[in-house]
Amino acid sequence: MSFAAIDDAPVTGFHRKLTAACSGGPLLDGYLLGIVGIALTGITTELHISTTTSAVIGVAALVGMFFGGLVFGPITDRIGRKPMYTVDLLVLLLASLLSVFVTSAWQLIVLRFAIGVAIAADYPIATALLTEWLPRKRRAGLFASVIIIWYVGTALAYLVGYLITAVVGDGGWRWMLGSAAVLAGVIFLLRLGTPESPRWLVGAGRSEQAREVIERAVGVRVSAADLADVPRDGERGSLLELFRGGHLRRMAFVVVFFTCAIIPLFALLTFGPQLLGAFGLGTGNAANLGTALINLVFAIGCLPAMKLLETVGRRRTIIWSFGLMVLPLLALGVWAHAPAPFAVACFCLYALFSGGPGILEWGYPNELFPTRVRAAALGVAIALTRFGAAVGTFLVPLALTSLGTSATLSLGAGITFIGFLACLAWAEETRHLSLEDIDVRAGQPTMVAAAPGDV
């Protein structure tokens, strides 16, 4: 076991600090993707934009994530996790500040696109770095905190939007978009001094530096022999590797389940107030507060999933989660005129059941692919899934207008069911395995790779 010093290490202050630093990006990401949903009301009024332009603003960041994931995931595998770890935050900070001064829709679309590119860069950087440092038996539990913080970020966005609207009115949308710069500055300072991934260092032929980093971080001395069987520069991966053999099956699984999870999620985050308003939960600021509460339930849903992923395993957790996620969306699709309390309850149940997939959207890609292509795999997954999410989110306001809320939510239930089928066919069990052992199983059929007793 080349990295036994890391895989079997007890959880220390180093791991908690690294988890907090890596969670900063997802906190900001969730905030940036959520705040635009509240700001759209004021933007539409002040800039005199159409429904179509409003939808473009809502999805511009997702389109940016498509390009950012394709470009910066592979770059992160080539030059390392640490160099890109703070640069992306500076881009987010600058774009957020410039959003305060926009005078037309196209300027805001460009800035939201840039924000999406930077967000997509942060996903593979922070999550690959964290995954490569975490002990194998606590990987899912600690990784879950990153996802929880993402949902906290979206809830915080709606809460801030609610407060700004209550004080300033819809004209406070500039303050909403600019507020993300404050978060970016704090997170930038938190990340200073974060060490490079020793797995990446060994793969780059820098074993001596990897030994020093491991000893400083976890207090365990390792020898050159301990790190001898890890691929070096000549064996660096490429994007093509993701689409061959067992990695192709894994990539197909990640992209399908990830897409089916985030299309309804992003639609709810971006157009939550409109969806809740359709069921009579007020309009405007009251719906913003309701959306903030639902996002907190998304975070709460990760708490039982943290335990389930380490006890019953990844495979069974994600299969049952997707199956249960279908039910509340289907109920709202069937009951076209459901009362507001029932609608809120259904949205909360969907949020609660989504904890397992929410954690594994980032956890699975980082576990299923080797160090040489880990960031590239998540980058490609982000790119492809965000393209689907962008299309889905763009169509949500149009579907609400032309088809109605009931049919729109029924479509969401159908998309979620496709995710259930993908998990049933392809989900693997990775519980308590080292990252290197998971890589060895890439060529095995899914059911062989599953642990005994798993679905």
Commentary on this structure:
The protein is mainly alpha-helical and 455 residues long. The protein contains 19 helices and no strands. The C terminus is likely disordered.
Radius of gyration: 21 Å
Low-confidence stretches: 447-455
Termini separation (Å)? 28 Å
CATH topology-level fold name: Growth Hormone, Chain: A
What is the number of helical segments per DSSP (H or I, 4+ residues)?
19
CATH architecture grouping: Up-down Bundle
CATH class designation: Mainly Alpha
Strand runs, count? 0
- Judged by helices, strands and strand pairing, the structural class is mainly alpha
Instruction: Estimate the helix proportion, in percent.
Output: over 70%
Output the CATH homologous superfamily: MFS general substrate transporter like domains
The total number of structural domains is 1
Q: Please outline the major beta sheet.
A: none
Transmembrane segments: 31-49, 55-73, 85-103, 109-130, 142-167, 173-192, 251-271, 286-306, 318-336, 342-364, 376-400, 406-427
Subcellular location: Cell membrane
Protein name: Putative MFS transporter
InterPro entries: MFS_dom, MFS_sugar_transport-like, MFS_Sugar_Transporters, MFS_trans_sf
